[in-house]
Amino acid sequence: MNAIKTVPVAALNGPAMIDCETAALIRAVMLPLFEAAQSWPELIDAMQKRGYGLAFRGGAFCITETETGARLCGLRFLGLTIEHLIGRLGRPCVKAAPGGSADGYLMRNPPVRAAMH
């Protein structure tokens, strides 16, 4: 009997295990979105159309499920680094999550600041 290999993926409530076929499918769906995007807003829009978001959780950049907010995977899982993305797309606009944690969410556009008079 062949055992199905699993790969650790962090989830909302701790590490989860997924099988290799699911891991390959996640990579096949997500990597083209990152590769095709020419800007952070474009990447955010592409992710949202498929039910996913981008966020920092515990200081790590990750992909989240829009409906549940659960962490799907980190960039390392996809073979990417934040440094590579910043070099290609520029610095992302991040909104800090309440509570003073290292969590935050990527914003499509920076907030508009009122002009000083």
Tell me what you see in this structure:
It contains 4 helices and 7 strands; from the N terminus they run E-E-H-H-E-E-E-H-H-E-E. By secondary structure, it is α+β, with helices and mostly antiparallel strands. The longest helix has 17 residues, at 20-36. The termini are far apart.
Topology diagram in text:
Elements: E1 6-11, E2 14-19, H1 20-36, H2 40-49, E3 52-57, E4 60-65, E5 71-74, H3 75-78, H4 82-89, E6 93-96, E7 104-107
Antiparallel strand pairs: 1-2, 3-4, 3-7, 4-5, 6-7
Outline:
This protein is an alpha+beta fold and 117 residues long. It has helices at residues 20-36, 40-49, 75-78, 82-89; strands at residues 6-11, 14-19, 52-57, 60-65, 71-74, 93-96, 104-107.
Give descriptors for this structure.
117 residues; alpha+beta; five-stranded antiparallel sheet; two-stranded antiparallel sheet; 33% helix
User: Approximately how much helix is present in the residues?
Assistant: 25-40%
Mean pLDDT over all positions: 79
State Rg.
16 Å
Order of strands across the main sheet: 5-4-3-7-6
How many distinct beta strands? 7
Order of helices and strands: EEHHEEEHHEE
Low-confidence stretches: 4-15
Q: How would you characterize the largest beta sheet?
A: 5 strands, antiparallel
The best one-word shape is: globular
Distance between the termini: 74 Å
Give the class from helix and strand content and strand pairing: alpha+beta
Tell me the number of helical segments per DSSP (H or I, 4 or more residues long): 4
Q: How much strand content do the residues show?
A: 25-35%
